[in-house]
Amino acid sequence: MSGSGVAGRRWRLFVGRRRDRVAQVPTVERPSMSDYGVPADPAGTLAWTWAQERLVDNKNYWVVTASASARPHAMPVWGVWLPDPDRFWFSCSPNARKARNIAENPQCVVTVDSTVECVSVEGRARLVDPTRDGDATDHAVACYVAKYWDDPDVHSEMEAFVRSHTIVEVTPEVAFGIIEREDEFAQRATRWRW
To answer: Per-residue pLDDT tens for 14-54?
Structure first.
């Protein structure tokens, strides 16, 4: 998993620089999973910070999109979860199925690659206009490059590569946290809403 060692500490510090405003914390609920033993009582739910840690530190995310005709498409991507405000950013070819789907249907899902400590985020994606969204795009691209390339000598090349593609921002609407361990599954299952 990314985010370990010296480079990981630098990456986390870089992500955390935008603390000049109050982040919106989602509402904590239980998912409707009573058939699986998930109680309605919110006691024992996971804190949003638990999900944020996994989203920020994750290296390979899954992005699920659907075309206008509802045909699903799932692909792994590299990206960055920026916690203030909570947003997911990634880039892809403008010809990629996911980019075409998002242009037709902004609803999507982003998940971490862990199948034990699962975080799944449902939200709305948009194709970013780097001119209109300059500061936010600059910050997201800088965080992306710092996360995936330890060598600063390649940062400008990698930044140019990322910017040469379509940049996507996902705004979360609902997220789920599930721990796939028998003793924690039902008691810790959590839903967050923005």
So the answer is: 455 444 555 689 999 999 999 999 999 999 999 999 999 99
Q: How many domains does the chain have?
A: 1
Distance in angstroms (rounded) separating the CA atoms of residues 62 and 163: 21
CATH of the domain at 62: 2.30.110.10
Residue 96 amino acid letter: A
Range of the domain at 48: 5-79+86-193
The residue with tokens 């699962």 is: 118
Rounded Cα distance, 136 and 151, in Å: 23
pLDDT, one tens digit per residue, over 101-141 is 999 999 999 999 999 999 999 999 999 998 899 999 999 99
